[in-house]
Amino acid sequence: MVAGRAIVDDHADRFVWDWYGRPERRDRLRAAAADRFLDDLARRPFAYLAGALPHLPLATGSADLVLCSHLLFTWADRLDAGWHRAALADLVRVARREVRVFPLVVQATGAPVPFLDRLVDELRALGHDADVRDVPYEFQRGAHAMLVIHRR
Asked: Which has the closest alpha carbon to 53: 37, 38, 68?
């Protein structure tokens, strides 16, 4: 959480504070969410499976909806197009129906991801429906869209 706070502190002008109000409230909400997760993990460890992209330890078509938040595209300055291609392929493999990825900008800078359009085109060429859709949430300026992939 410290690294995330440093990014926000260093680039505060690149964030929209309408929902959180202030950085301190964001920190409290994130800490509370982490506490709830750790409590649930302690009570129900069987409900969790450790894994890492780009290769998930899940069966093909094992999830109706696959969500990826703040990993793909967020770290496009550190994880290249090849890594993203492999990660998207595995998310699609695991999905029975749909994959959603949010946000679609580089962390901190909010810069567009230079290879996003190419990967979307590649998904379509493989026969999947892949669209970038606006969402009614924006914390990082410019991060108001998600990638939605319907597996075919």
From this structure: 68
Sequential DSSP letters for 36-90: HHHHHHHH-GGG----BTTB-SS-TT-EEEEEEESSTTTTTTTS-HHHHHHHHHH
- Helix H, strand E, coil C: the string for 88-143 is HHHHHHHEEEEEEEECCECCCCCCECCCHHHHHHHHHHCCCEEEEEECCCCCECCC
In sequence order, which residues have a C-beta less than 8 Å from that of residue 103 and are 6 or more positions away? 70, 73, 74, 140, 143, 144, 145, 146
Q: 86-125 pLDDT, tens per residue?
A: 999 999 999 999 999 999 999 878 899 999 999 999 999 9
Global pTM value = 0.89
